Amino acid sequence: MSNELDLNSLSDEELVEQMHDDLYDGLKDEIEEGVRILLQRGWQPYDVLTKSLVAGMKIVGEDFRDGILFVPEVLMSANAMKAGMSILRPLLAETGAPKIGKMVIGTVKGDIHDIGKNLVTMMMEGAGFEVIDIGINNPVENYLAAIEEHQPDIVGMSALLTTTMPYMKVVIDTMKEKGIRNDYIVLVGGAPLNEAFAESIGADAYCRDAAVAVETAKAFMARRQGSALAQRVA
Amino acid sequence: MGELSTSFPEPPRTLVIACGALAREFLFLKERNGWDHMTITCLPAKLHNRPQLIPEAVREKIREMRAGYDRVLCLYGDCGTGGLLDQVLAEEGAERIAGAHCYEFFLGSPEFEALNDEDPATFYLTDYLVRHFETLIIKGLGLDRFPQLLETYFGNYNRVVFLSQIPDWMLLEKAEEAARRLGLPLVVRETGLGGIETFLATA
Prior knowledge:
heterodimer, A: alpha/beta, Methyltransferase, Methionine Synthase (B12-binding Domains), Chain A, domain 1, Rossmann fold, 5-stranded parallel β-sheet, globular, B: alpha/beta, 2 domains, 4-stranded parallel β-sheet, 3-stranded parallel β-sheet, 10 helices, 7 strands
């Protein structure tokens, strides 16, 4: 426990603030305890998620972007959030928390790196997306099967290697051949990628980090819902 | 009839811009081949932790040092820059050794491809990475402070392949220790320095 602090003795507001600090410090046990306390006090799982975990990770993400925090610290925070999420996930499903959209995400064929992808998955879940993570080293067939089975709004692809990132184009080209490319928002990310590459392979957007992925996905979903609404009105 | 010249033409004065991880290897080759016309300048190897910074750092170094040289060669792979390094080199008129990263130009492209296809879940070490394993891998990834992140970083890997440039039993022992710390089996492949040597000799 952080400095032997009794989390039960804190008010809701103090506890949420303390959880932001504990998330920042990557304290998994304290986050689990904080989540349980808030639930015991009658908080809705969705409120626990957004007000304590997501708001806390937002601070972590901003300090990472600004060069105050580095990858190991962010991973410790992410692991703490993951622990909190694993308590909340089944409750969120039971309570019918709002869903913004659905995403299928995976690392492409030949690539076994998943740290960035896992961060995106968690932050997307935190933002209210349903995420189907198909793991690492995925050939195009895996993406197509997941798309068919889950009918997502968004397809996300990740690659860490210069040698594996061209495979994203294989997936997009296959989607085009099958006439389904425009049915989905395609987001790509990974250390060696950039906007020019994303554009050259026909993706909808390049996401520099997990926070950008969430904002980009939300913006595309808003646009998509806007155009669906416009079609209904017309 | 004109007088025959008995002297050879001067080789072009060459500036080699390299990743710090290749400095020792370059100096070894320079001495072995008597490449007095070549001068090396290095950028810190830790730039690999933020590959997006490499292209502009290379550009800055070229502009800072190119006066006084006939040509500039670059000892970097693409190194995760997604083609941006090649764009900078083309704009600055410099030539790079072929390959996505040093593993590829140490081993040669076909051999690297075969090794990687055999198991993409391979973590590569070179002489430099073995020598600086503690600083670059353990401390660089924060494993000294957060040993619990080992699984997060290395959980998907199946093996360590040590690409050995200059055989040295002390490095071999260190590579064995490194693989043990990562909890992975070790495979050793001797690569020599032929890839770099050929590039510098023929570019």
